[in-house]
Amino acid sequence: MEMGALVVTAGGDVTSTAPGSSLWAPAWPVLGQTVLERWIKMVQGLGVGLVSVVDRAEQQSNRVHTMIEWAREGVERILLIVLGSYAEIDLCDLVRFHYEGQHQVTRVFDQEGPLGISLLDRGCVLGHRERAIHEPHSHSSRYDFLGYVIRLSSTVSYRQLVEDALQGRCGIRPTGIQTRERVWIDQTAFVDPSVQIEAPCYIGPRARVRASVRIRGCSSIERDCDIDLGTTLDHTSILPNTYVAPGLYVRESVVDGTKLENLARGVELDLGTAGLLARIGNPQPTASGRPVQVSPDQELPLSGAEAQQS
Amino acid sequence: MPPSPVTVMQLPDLSDPSAHRSFLREVKKFMDSSRQPRLIVDLSTVGQIAPESIDLLLECVDQAERSDGEVSVAGASRETEVILELTQATSVLNIFPSVLEAANGSQPQVA
Hints:
A: alpha/beta; UDP N-Acetylglucosamine Acyltransferase, domain 1; B: alpha/beta; Transcription Regulator spoIIAA; 4-stranded parallel β-sheet; 4 helices
Protein backbone atom coordinates (compact mmCIF):
# COMPACT_ATOMS: atom_id res chain seq x y z
CA MET A 1 0.00 0.00 0.00
CA GLU A 2 1.27 3.43 -0.93
CA MET A 3 0.36 5.52 2.11
CA GLY A 4 -1.25 5.44 5.53
CA ALA A 5 -2.32 8.32 7.72
CA LEU A 6 -2.27 8.38 11.49
CA VAL A 7 -4.23 11.20 13.06
CA VAL A 8 -3.49 11.87 16.72
CA THR A 9 -6.29 13.67 18.50
CA ALA A 10 -6.09 15.71 21.69
CA GLY A 11 -5.60 13.63 24.79
CA GLY A 12 -8.40 12.28 26.95
CA ASP A 13 -12.05 12.97 26.44
CA VAL A 14 -12.22 15.20 23.41
CA THR A 15 -15.38 16.78 24.75
CA SER A 16 -13.58 18.01 27.82
CA THR A 17 -11.85 21.32 28.14
CA ALA A 18 -8.39 21.46 26.67
CA PRO A 19 -5.54 22.21 29.02
CA GLY A 20 -4.56 25.85 29.22
CA SER A 21 -7.86 27.20 28.00
CA SER A 22 -11.20 27.81 29.59
CA LEU A 23 -14.09 26.33 27.65
CA TRP A 24 -12.51 25.18 24.38
CA ALA A 25 -12.71 21.47 23.53
CA PRO A 26 -11.36 19.83 20.36
CA ALA A 27 -14.67 18.10 19.63
CA TRP A 28 -16.44 21.36 18.90
CA PRO A 29 -17.82 21.32 15.39
CA VAL A 30 -16.97 24.14 13.03
CA LEU A 31 -20.06 24.79 10.93
CA GLY A 32 -21.22 21.19 10.95
CA GLN A 33 -18.01 19.19 11.13
CA THR A 34 -15.20 18.88 13.61
CA VAL A 35 -11.66 19.74 12.64
CA LEU A 36 -10.81 16.05 12.95
CA GLU A 37 -13.49 15.16 10.43
CA ARG A 38 -12.22 17.84 8.11
CA TRP A 39 -8.65 16.52 8.38
CA ILE A 40 -9.83 12.98 7.63
CA LYS A 41 -11.67 14.22 4.56
CA MET A 42 -8.54 16.03 3.40
CA VAL A 43 -6.50 12.85 3.82
CA GLN A 44 -9.12 10.76 2.08
CA GLY A 45 -9.12 13.29 -0.73
CA LEU A 46 -5.51 12.36 -1.25
CA GLY A 47 -6.62 8.80 -1.97
CA VAL A 48 -5.18 7.42 1.25
CA GLY A 49 -6.96 4.18 2.03
CA LEU A 50 -5.50 3.55 5.44
CA VAL A 51 -6.51 6.19 7.98
CA SER A 52 -6.34 5.64 11.71
CA VAL A 53 -7.31 7.95 14.53
CA VAL A 54 -5.64 7.57 17.90
CA ASP A 55 -5.95 9.49 21.10
CA ARG A 56 -2.95 11.42 22.33
CA ALA A 57 -3.70 10.11 25.81
CA GLU A 58 -2.90 6.60 24.62
CA GLN A 59 0.59 5.40 25.32
CA GLN A 60 2.94 6.70 22.69
CA SER A 61 4.26 3.16 22.18
CA ASN A 62 0.85 2.17 20.79
CA ARG A 63 1.13 4.90 18.20
CA VAL A 64 4.64 3.84 17.32
CA HIS A 65 3.54 0.22 17.21
CA THR A 66 0.79 1.09 14.71
CA MET A 67 3.29 2.86 12.47
CA ILE A 68 5.83 0.06 12.63
CA GLU A 69 3.12 -2.49 11.89
CA TRP A 70 2.04 -0.50 8.87
CA ALA A 71 5.62 -0.21 7.66
CA ARG A 72 6.13 -3.93 8.05
CA GLU A 73 2.96 -4.58 6.10
CA GLY A 74 4.41 -2.56 3.23
CA VAL A 75 2.95 0.91 3.70
CA GLU A 76 5.50 3.10 1.91
CA ARG A 77 4.79 6.43 3.56
CA ILE A 78 3.02 7.43 6.73
CA LEU A 79 1.40 10.79 7.18
CA LEU A 80 1.39 11.67 10.87
CA ILE A 81 -0.98 14.43 11.90
CA VAL A 82 -0.95 15.55 15.51
CA LEU A 83 -4.12 17.61 15.77
CA GLY A 84 -3.58 21.06 17.15
CA SER A 85 -4.36 23.20 14.19
CA TYR A 86 -6.53 23.55 11.14
CA ALA A 87 -4.31 24.03 8.09
CA GLU A 88 -5.29 23.95 4.45
CA ILE A 89 -2.23 22.14 3.27
CA ASP A 90 -2.05 20.85 -0.26
CA LEU A 91 -1.24 17.30 0.75
CA CYS A 92 -0.52 16.31 -2.87
CA ASP A 93 2.16 18.98 -2.98
CA LEU A 94 3.55 17.82 0.35
CA VAL A 95 3.82 14.24 -0.92
CA ARG A 96 5.43 15.46 -4.16
CA PHE A 97 7.96 17.54 -2.21
CA HIS A 98 8.76 14.57 0.01
CA TYR A 99 9.03 12.15 -2.91
CA GLU A 100 11.02 14.34 -5.27
CA GLY A 101 13.44 15.39 -2.55
CA GLN A 102 13.87 11.77 -1.52
CA HIS A 103 13.44 12.86 2.06
CA GLN A 104 13.07 10.34 4.82
CA VAL A 105 11.04 12.63 7.02
CA THR A 106 9.30 15.82 6.00
CA ARG A 107 7.87 18.13 8.62
CA VAL A 108 5.43 20.93 7.88
CA PHE A 109 6.12 24.41 9.22
CA ASP A 110 4.40 27.72 8.97
CA GLN A 111 5.82 31.08 10.01
CA GLU A 112 5.16 30.35 13.67
CA GLY A 113 6.79 26.94 13.73
CA PRO A 114 5.94 23.25 13.28
CA LEU A 115 2.34 22.31 12.64
CA GLY A 116 2.52 18.76 13.95
CA ILE A 117 2.32 17.25 10.48
CA SER A 118 5.03 14.88 9.28
CA LEU A 119 5.46 12.53 6.38
CA LEU A 120 7.69 9.54 7.17
CA ASP A 121 9.21 7.00 4.84
CA ARG A 122 8.78 3.31 5.50
CA GLY A 123 12.53 2.79 5.67
CA CYS A 124 12.85 5.50 8.24
CA VAL A 125 10.12 4.01 10.41
CA LEU A 126 11.62 0.53 10.21
CA GLY A 127 15.24 1.61 10.38
CA HIS A 128 15.21 4.13 13.14
CA ARG A 129 12.09 2.88 14.84
CA GLU A 130 11.21 4.75 17.96
CA ARG A 131 13.79 7.50 17.63
CA ALA A 132 12.59 8.47 14.19
CA ILE A 133 9.01 8.65 15.31
CA HIS A 134 9.62 10.31 18.65
CA GLU A 135 12.05 12.78 17.20
CA PRO A 136 11.13 13.25 13.57
CA HIS A 137 13.01 16.58 13.55
CA SER A 138 16.37 14.90 14.14
CA HIS A 139 16.97 14.23 10.47
CA SER A 140 14.05 15.79 8.69
CA SER A 141 13.45 18.17 5.84
CA ARG A 142 11.24 21.17 6.18
CA TYR A 143 8.15 21.92 4.13
CA ASP A 144 7.14 25.54 4.48
CA PHE A 145 3.45 26.17 4.29
CA LEU A 146 2.20 29.67 3.55
CA GLY A 147 -1.53 29.07 3.25
CA TYR A 148 -4.37 29.33 5.72
CA VAL A 149 -3.62 27.94 9.16
CA ILE A 150 -5.02 28.48 12.62
CA ARG A 151 -3.79 26.90 15.82
CA LEU A 152 -6.74 25.72 17.83
CA SER A 153 -5.93 26.16 21.45
CA SER A 154 -8.64 28.40 22.83
CA THR A 155 -12.20 29.55 22.43
CA VAL A 156 -10.87 32.72 20.80
CA SER A 157 -9.12 30.75 18.04
CA TYR A 158 -12.23 28.60 17.59
CA ARG A 159 -14.35 31.72 17.03
CA GLN A 160 -11.72 33.07 14.65
CA LEU A 161 -11.98 29.90 12.57
CA VAL A 162 -15.78 30.10 12.50
CA GLU A 163 -15.66 33.73 11.40
CA ASP A 164 -12.99 33.05 8.78
CA ALA A 165 -15.09 30.20 7.38
CA LEU A 166 -18.28 32.26 7.29
CA GLN A 167 -16.45 35.20 5.70
CA GLY A 168 -14.87 32.94 3.10
CA ARG A 169 -11.34 33.63 4.33
CA CYS A 170 -10.55 29.91 4.43
CA GLY A 171 -11.64 26.84 2.53
CA ILE A 172 -14.17 25.53 5.04
CA ARG A 173 -17.61 25.32 3.56
CA PRO A 174 -20.46 24.91 6.03
CA THR A 175 -22.63 21.83 5.75
CA GLY A 176 -26.25 22.42 4.72
CA ILE A 177 -27.79 24.47 2.00
CA GLN A 178 -26.81 28.00 1.15
CA THR A 179 -30.22 29.66 1.22
CA ARG A 180 -28.88 33.05 0.25
CA GLU A 181 -25.47 34.64 -0.03
CA ARG A 182 -23.35 33.43 2.91
CA VAL A 183 -26.33 32.04 4.83
CA TRP A 184 -26.27 28.29 5.34
CA ILE A 185 -29.26 26.53 6.87
CA ASP A 186 -29.54 22.77 7.17
CA GLN A 187 -32.64 21.29 5.59
CA THR A 188 -33.66 19.74 8.90
CA ALA A 189 -33.44 22.99 10.85
CA PHE A 190 -36.57 24.91 11.81
CA VAL A 191 -36.31 28.65 11.43
CA ASP A 192 -39.39 30.73 12.20
CA PRO A 193 -40.25 33.14 9.36
CA SER A 194 -39.92 36.09 11.75
CA VAL A 195 -36.27 35.35 12.48
CA GLN A 196 -33.95 38.16 11.35
CA ILE A 197 -30.76 36.83 9.84
CA GLU A 198 -27.83 39.03 8.98
CA ALA A 199 -25.32 37.24 6.72
CA PRO A 200 -23.06 35.45 7.15
CA CYS A 201 -24.47 32.81 9.45
CA TYR A 202 -24.86 29.07 9.85
CA ILE A 203 -27.75 27.05 11.29
CA GLY A 204 -27.06 23.34 11.67
CA PRO A 205 -29.13 20.15 11.53
CA ARG A 206 -32.29 19.93 13.65
CA ALA A 207 -31.66 23.34 15.19
CA ARG A 208 -34.78 25.21 16.25
CA VAL A 209 -34.75 28.98 15.96
CA ARG A 210 -37.93 30.46 17.35
CA ALA A 211 -39.89 33.62 16.60
CA SER A 212 -38.23 37.04 16.65
CA VAL A 213 -34.73 35.70 17.16
CA ARG A 214 -32.01 37.88 15.62
CA ILE A 215 -28.80 36.37 14.30
CA ARG A 216 -25.93 38.60 13.25
CA GLY A 217 -22.19 39.12 13.29
CA CYS A 218 -20.97 35.80 11.87
CA SER A 219 -22.95 33.76 14.38
CA SER A 220 -23.30 30.00 14.14
CA ILE A 221 -25.80 27.58 15.61
CA GLU A 222 -24.66 23.97 15.53
CA ARG A 223 -26.91 20.89 15.45
CA ASP A 224 -29.79 20.17 17.85
CA CYS A 225 -29.89 23.62 19.45
CA ASP A 226 -32.95 25.54 20.52
CA ILE A 227 -32.85 29.33 20.50
CA ASP A 228 -35.90 30.65 22.27
CA LEU A 229 -38.13 33.63 21.48
CA GLY A 230 -36.61 37.01 20.83
CA THR A 231 -33.02 36.20 21.72
CA THR A 232 -30.25 37.96 19.83
CA LEU A 233 -27.01 36.23 18.87
CA ASP A 234 -24.22 38.60 17.93
CA HIS A 235 -20.72 37.34 17.05
CA THR A 236 -21.62 34.15 18.88
CA SER A 237 -21.37 30.39 18.38
CA ILE A 238 -23.87 28.03 19.93
CA LEU A 239 -22.50 24.51 20.24
CA PRO A 240 -24.57 21.33 19.78
CA ASN A 241 -27.42 20.38 22.11
CA THR A 242 -27.70 23.81 23.70
CA TYR A 243 -30.87 25.61 24.75
CA VAL A 244 -30.77 29.41 24.99
CA ALA A 245 -33.61 31.06 26.97
CA PRO A 246 -35.88 33.76 25.53
CA GLY A 247 -35.06 37.44 25.41
CA LEU A 248 -31.32 37.22 25.86
CA TYR A 249 -28.62 39.23 24.14
CA VAL A 250 -25.63 36.97 23.62
CA ARG A 251 -22.62 38.84 22.30
CA GLU A 252 -19.05 37.77 21.51
CA SER A 253 -19.56 34.45 23.21
CA VAL A 254 -19.38 30.72 22.72
CA VAL A 255 -22.10 28.73 24.46
CA ASP A 256 -21.82 25.02 25.17
CA GLY A 257 -24.74 23.59 27.15
CA THR A 258 -24.99 25.52 30.38
CA LYS A 259 -21.60 27.17 29.95
CA LEU A 260 -20.90 30.49 28.31
CA GLU A 261 -17.53 32.01 27.58
CA ASN A 262 -17.65 35.72 26.88
CA LEU A 263 -14.65 36.56 24.73
CA ALA A 264 -14.94 40.33 25.10
CA ARG A 265 -14.52 40.14 28.88
CA GLY A 266 -12.62 36.85 29.12
CA VAL A 267 -15.20 35.38 31.47
CA GLU A 268 -16.62 31.88 31.70
CA LEU A 269 -19.97 31.34 33.40
CA ASP A 270 -22.24 28.43 34.16
CA LEU A 271 -25.78 29.70 33.73
CA GLY A 272 -27.63 26.42 34.13
CA THR A 273 -28.99 27.12 37.59
CA ALA A 274 -30.02 30.61 36.51
CA GLY A 275 -32.23 28.96 33.88
CA LEU A 276 -30.70 30.98 31.06
CA LEU A 277 -28.96 28.07 29.33
CA ALA A 278 -29.42 24.30 29.29
CA ARG A 279 -28.05 21.13 27.76
CA ILE A 280 -30.73 19.42 25.68
CA GLY A 281 -30.98 16.12 23.82
CA ASN A 282 -28.26 13.52 23.82
CA PRO A 283 -24.84 14.74 22.79
CA GLN A 284 -23.29 12.26 20.37
CA PRO A 285 -20.53 10.06 21.74
CA THR A 286 -17.06 11.01 20.67
CA ALA A 287 -13.66 9.37 20.39
CA SER A 288 -13.11 6.93 23.20
CA GLY A 289 -9.36 7.00 22.94
CA ARG A 290 -9.03 3.67 21.21
CA PRO A 291 -7.59 3.69 17.69
CA VAL A 292 -10.23 3.68 15.01
CA GLN A 293 -9.71 3.04 11.36
CA VAL A 294 -11.67 4.97 8.80
CA SER A 295 -12.33 3.41 5.43
CA PRO A 296 -12.03 5.66 2.36
CA ASP A 297 -15.72 5.67 1.51
CA GLN A 298 -16.93 5.77 5.07
CA GLU A 299 -19.46 8.39 6.02
CA LEU A 300 -17.98 10.24 8.93
CA PRO A 301 -20.05 10.68 12.04
CA LEU A 302 -21.03 14.18 13.05
CA SER A 303 -18.84 14.29 16.06
CA GLY A 304 -15.45 12.91 16.97
CA ALA A 305 -13.92 9.79 15.54
CA GLU A 306 -16.79 7.45 16.17
CA ALA A 307 -15.99 5.00 13.43
CA GLN A 308 -15.48 1.39 12.61
CA GLN A 309 -13.02 -0.27 14.93
CA SER A 310 -9.82 -1.41 13.35
CA MET B 1 -31.81 74.05 40.73
CA PRO B 2 -30.78 71.70 43.56
CA PRO B 3 -28.83 68.62 42.55
CA SER B 4 -30.70 65.32 42.32
CA PRO B 5 -30.61 63.41 45.58
CA VAL B 6 -28.34 60.37 45.50
CA THR B 7 -28.35 57.30 47.68
CA VAL B 8 -26.10 54.26 47.63
CA MET B 9 -27.45 50.85 48.59
CA GLN B 10 -26.28 47.27 48.53
CA LEU B 11 -28.41 44.38 47.39
CA PRO B 12 -30.07 42.46 50.22
CA ASP B 13 -29.43 38.85 51.08
CA LEU B 14 -31.73 36.95 48.74
CA SER B 15 -32.22 34.15 51.19
CA ASP B 16 -33.79 36.57 53.67
CA PRO B 17 -37.30 37.60 52.55
CA SER B 18 -37.59 40.30 55.20
CA ALA B 19 -34.34 41.92 54.02
CA HIS B 20 -35.70 41.79 50.49
CA ARG B 21 -38.95 43.52 51.54
CA SER B 22 -37.08 46.06 53.63
CA PHE B 23 -34.81 46.90 50.69
CA LEU B 24 -37.77 47.55 48.42
CA ARG B 25 -39.49 49.63 51.09
CA GLU B 26 -36.41 51.82 51.45
CA VAL B 27 -36.10 52.23 47.70
CA LYS B 28 -39.75 53.22 47.40
CA LYS B 29 -39.44 55.69 50.27
CA PHE B 30 -36.38 57.30 48.69
CA MET B 31 -37.98 57.50 45.26
CA ASP B 32 -41.28 58.87 46.60
CA SER B 33 -39.62 61.57 48.69
CA SER B 34 -37.32 62.94 46.00
CA ARG B 35 -37.45 64.59 42.65
CA GLN B 36 -35.32 62.95 39.94
CA PRO B 37 -33.73 60.64 42.51
CA ARG B 38 -30.58 58.71 41.68
CA LEU B 39 -30.16 55.30 43.24
CA ILE B 40 -26.72 53.72 43.05
CA VAL B 41 -26.58 50.01 43.77
CA ASP B 42 -23.11 48.98 44.89
CA LEU B 43 -22.34 45.54 43.41
CA SER B 44 -18.69 45.47 44.43
CA THR B 45 -19.26 42.61 46.86
CA VAL B 46 -21.31 40.51 44.43
CA GLY B 47 -19.33 37.83 42.60
CA GLN B 48 -21.93 36.70 40.08
CA ILE B 49 -25.34 38.31 40.17
CA ALA B 50 -28.35 36.00 40.55
CA PRO B 51 -31.43 36.30 38.31
CA GLU B 52 -33.50 37.21 41.39
CA SER B 53 -31.21 40.18 42.00
CA ILE B 54 -31.73 41.33 38.44
CA ASP B 55 -35.48 41.18 39.02
CA LEU B 56 -34.95 43.30 42.10
CA LEU B 57 -32.90 45.85 40.13
CA LEU B 58 -35.68 46.01 37.56
CA GLU B 59 -38.19 46.69 40.33
CA CYS B 60 -35.97 49.56 41.42
CA VAL B 61 -35.96 50.89 37.85
CA ASP B 62 -39.73 50.68 37.84
CA GLN B 63 -39.92 52.69 41.05
CA ALA B 64 -37.38 55.22 39.77
CA GLU B 65 -39.24 55.84 36.53
CA ARG B 66 -42.33 56.90 38.47
CA SER B 67 -40.29 59.69 40.05
CA ASP B 68 -38.37 60.56 36.92
CA GLY B 69 -35.31 59.07 38.56
CA GLU B 70 -32.64 56.61 37.51
CA VAL B 71 -30.85 53.55 38.79
CA SER B 72 -27.14 52.95 38.40
CA VAL B 73 -25.04 49.95 39.32
CA ALA B 74 -21.41 50.31 40.30
CA GLY B 75 -18.44 48.05 40.86
CA ALA B 76 -19.90 45.04 39.05
CA SER B 77 -17.59 42.09 38.48
CA ARG B 78 -16.89 40.97 34.91
CA GLU B 79 -19.19 38.00 35.52
CA THR B 80 -22.02 40.27 36.63
CA GLU B 81 -21.41 42.62 33.69
CA VAL B 82 -21.83 39.68 31.30
CA ILE B 83 -25.09 38.63 32.97
CA LEU B 84 -26.45 42.18 32.97
CA GLU B 85 -25.71 42.40 29.26
CA LEU B 86 -27.08 38.91 28.55
CA THR B 87 -30.38 39.68 30.26
CA GLN B 88 -30.50 43.11 28.62
CA ALA B 89 -30.68 44.80 32.02
CA THR B 90 -28.01 47.16 30.68
CA SER B 91 -30.67 48.79 28.52
CA VAL B 92 -32.34 50.30 31.62
CA LEU B 93 -29.41 50.57 34.04
CA ASN B 94 -26.43 52.92 34.04
CA ILE B 95 -23.21 50.99 34.62
CA PHE B 96 -20.24 52.58 36.40
CA PRO B 97 -16.90 51.10 37.39
CA SER B 98 -17.18 52.48 40.93
CA VAL B 99 -19.62 54.13 43.31
CA LEU B 100 -17.50 57.28 43.26
CA GLU B 101 -17.78 57.64 39.51
CA ALA B 102 -21.50 56.94 39.67
CA ALA B 103 -21.99 59.55 42.38
CA ASN B 104 -19.93 62.12 40.48
CA GLY B 105 -22.19 61.72 37.51
CA SER B 106 -19.47 60.54 35.14
CA GLN B 107 -20.39 59.13 31.79
CA PRO B 108 -21.74 55.59 32.28
CA GLN B 109 -19.85 52.66 30.80
CA VAL B 110 -20.90 51.48 27.39
CA ALA B 111 -22.33 47.99 27.94
